[in-house]
Amino acid sequence: MALDSAGDTSLLLDNEDVLPVHEDNAAGSSPFLLTADHYGRLIPRVLGDLGLPASELTRHIAWDIGIAGVAGALSKHLDAHLIAQRYSRLVIDCNRPPRAPGSIPRISEATTIPGNEGLARDAIEARHKQIFDPYHRRIAEVIEQRLRDHRPTVLVSLHSFTPVYAGIARPWHIGTLYHRDTKLPPLLLKLLRAEADLVVGDNEPYAVSDETDYTIPVHGEARGLMNSGIEIRQDLIADPAGQASWADRLARIFGEIETMLRARRIV
Ligand SMILES: [Zn+2]
What we know:
Layout: E1 21-24, E2 32-36, H1 54-57, H2 67-78, E3 81-85, E4 107-108, E5 111-112, H3 121-148, E6 154-161, E7 164-165, E8 168-169, E9 174-177, H4 184-193, E10 200-202, H5 215-221, E11 226-233, H6 240-263
Helix pairs in contact: 2-6, 4-6
This protein binds zinc ion.
The site of zinc ion has 4 residues, from loops.
């Protein structure tokens, strides 16, 4: 457990660390713009293992298990641009406002993260400047370019949730997360509920708020884009077959939504 350098990390990412932003299908023609804040579970080399055993670093506290496979396939099926973040949310949570508790979590579920204890200001800033900022700057740039090009843009923020949190089992297979948008979430809920085999959460297991979320409030709501988050239960997308089947299902549903929006001349 290498923590020696965790307190002084003004240079967080070095030449051997990959960049935080991952993109698929940047030239995609779809109105849907996909994001995945918790896509990866990398840790910058200088932070070692954050003082955690491998068993913790592969759990849901580190990333959204299964979402990378779903997001990649969905991007392909829809011909939609995907912007995703490769570093673990234990390093910095890219869906938390920078000053929110939990932005750099000291405890996640019941796990204390030793590498996040007592961080100096420059270490905190390095995580913001080198991981959080480039990711959100890229999403902003892409949205601005699309608006300049008069391209319709519907923001869909992809997440997955653990089937059991703090000992409580969650019954939903999938949930929508939203706050101010009144257009996309009802359509999405209607079509998901039409799937006979699904238990669908309406702002379950999480809801969106300005205090706890970043991507939807800042990139979706503040710009007036139609938007929704989606949460898929992790046991359903733990393997490639589950990821492929959920990507197929969501591609079909978003295809129907696109048809409805085009009929209403919204996109
Ligand atoms: Zn997530």
